[in-house]
Amino acid sequence: MKSSSLLLTPEYFKIILDKVYETFLYKHNLKKLPKALQLYGYGAFNDDKPSLKKDFEDIGSEFINGKYLYDKSRELEKGKPIIKLNQHYKDIILLYLGYKNFNVFLEENKTSVIEYEKQHDLIYKDNEDITYYYLNYYFGEDDTILKGQTIISNNWKKIQHIFIYPLEDGTFREHYSNGSIKRQGDTITIKTNTLSGDRYIEGASEIYYIGHKSPSNINYLIGTYCTFDIYTNTVAGRSILEKCESKQVMEEQSKTPFIPPYIALEIRNKRIVNNSFVPRNALELSSNSPYASLYGKLPGTYELNFNFDTGFKEILKFKILPTNYQIITLTDNVYIEKDNFELLNKGSVINFRFSFSGIIALERVNIYFKTYYLKNKNGTQEGVFSGIDNENRLINGTLIVNYIQN
User: Fold this and answer.
1) Torsion on CA atoms 336, 367, 272, 356, rounded to nearest 10
2) DSSP codes of every residue in 178-220
3) DSSP secondary structure string, 25-63?
4) Helix or strand or coil: residue 172?
5) Residue closest to 152 by CA, chosen among 118, 183, 186
6) List of residues 6+ apart from 324 with CB closer than 8 A
7) Which residues contact 118 (CB under 8 A, 6 or more apart)?
8) Are 250 and 135 in contact (CB under 8 A)?
């Protein structure tokens, strides 16, 4: 920390002010503080009576402006987010309280973790730059989990990603991107540029949640990215930055094939890929587009009659809204926590996937049945299902689907 002015959070300025008051009362054997004019020593105060101005001038040889500390106390009352003490006042107050420097004061007066980190960042933000090293995990090209190196410097303002691609001959291909970091509330956003030929072009956007903590104290950053891959497809997905103890550790671990299970669990298949082509019409948006007319017939009311292989039966009713394709449960005391549905095999099969809570024998279920029922405004269709029941048993069976179009 440089010997200059001191930036304080309101929380820590109040701690300092309260300790100054306590010291003043003890020093002069007083029961209560005098009025502001006399306490701080400005305006029409009595120079023969105790004041902070006199106490401070006894410590140093320079003139003390008594109103300065009063003005700072008013800044606290008005809710100013950062309160700045000049170097002379900072040094005098610390000596008055018996501290050699603010670092000792801060360590001896820790409050909550959040407030401590806020104050810590304020006083150390102009320190000599510290470089932080991370492993960068993401689900990448060719449907594999990849990892690279991430280097953060300049007090969390600059970032470099080195994306590492293992080759069949045991060597590695590296792609570099450089960018800037900006903190916004409880998130950090990253914008990077990637070298293309002989010039840098705009690359990726990333965002990570950090809460109200100092990012340098966080071992894992979980966020999302949006960029283009080595095949020039636009992609998005989840990424995790894992802090390393040193540059050497980062470099060594980034080139090993091992992916920790706690990373693979969170990263695998967390990726969206848009192929690099421009559709000429709605039927070319993707390979599924030709079956959009069938998809448009899915909204309606469904009654699913489950026949377990054990002989047990269960009924689930729900509807798919025609406006936004949201699924709404119609069975009392049953809540659908997660749902998904899609057309398979050129639109000939529909797959529903549900997770439930409430009064129902099913916990999770995967359902398949043909889409023949969509030819009419109502119909019945047979299907199959498998999943887990509410006693954690693996189950399967057949089902009957009754459908009424909206």
Assistant:
1) 20
2) EEEEEEETTEEEEEEEEEETTEEEEEEEEEEE-TTS-GGG-SE
3) HHHTT-SS---HIIIII-SS--TTS--HHHHHHHHSSS-
4) strand
5) 183
6) none
7) 9, 11, 212, 214
8) yes
Q: What is the pLDDT of residues 152-204, one digit of tens each?
A: 998 888 999 999 999 999 899 998 899 999 988 789 999 998 766 556 678 78
Residue tagged 């069975």 (tokens): 331
Q: Two tokens at 384?
A: 């199959």
Query: Could you report the per-residue pLDDT of 244-265, keeping only the tens digit for each?
Result: 999 999 999 999 999 999 999 9
- Sorted by where each starts, the structural domains of the chain and their CATH numbers stand as 6-124 (no CATH), 132-274 (2.40.128), 290-405 (2.40.128)
Q: How far is CA 365 from CA 41, 307, 349, 362, in A?
A: 76, 13, 16, 7
Q: Tell me how far the alpha carbon of residue 18 is from its chain's centroid.
A: 36
Residue 244 bridge partners (DSSP): 133
- CA 297 to centroid of chain Cα atoms: 38
Give the chain's end-to-end CA distance (angstroms, integer).
69
CB 170 within 8 A of CB 187: no
For residues 216 and 130, is the Cβ–Cβ distance under 8 A?
A: yes
Is residue 388 within 8 A of residue 364, CB to CB? The reply is yes
Six token digits for residue 278: 């421009």
Amino acid at 138: Y
Give the angle subtended at the CA of 93 by the CAs of 116 and 117, to the nearest 5°. 10
pTM, two decimals, is: 0.67
88 CB-near residues (< 8 Å, 6+ apart):
60, 62
Task: Enumerate the β-bridge partners of residue 182.
Answer: 189
As a whole number of angstroms, the distance between CA 273 and CA 325 comes to 23
Task: Please choose, from the candidates 4, 24, 3, 20, the residue with its C-alpha nearest in 3D space to the C-alpha of residue 12.
Answer: 20
In which element (H, E) is residue 249 found? helix 247-253
What H or E segment, with its residue span, contains residue 71? helix 66-77
Q: In degrees rounded to 5, what are phi and psi of residue 118?
A: -60, -45
| Residue-wise pLDDT tens digits, 126-154 | 555 688 999 999 999 989 999 999 999 98
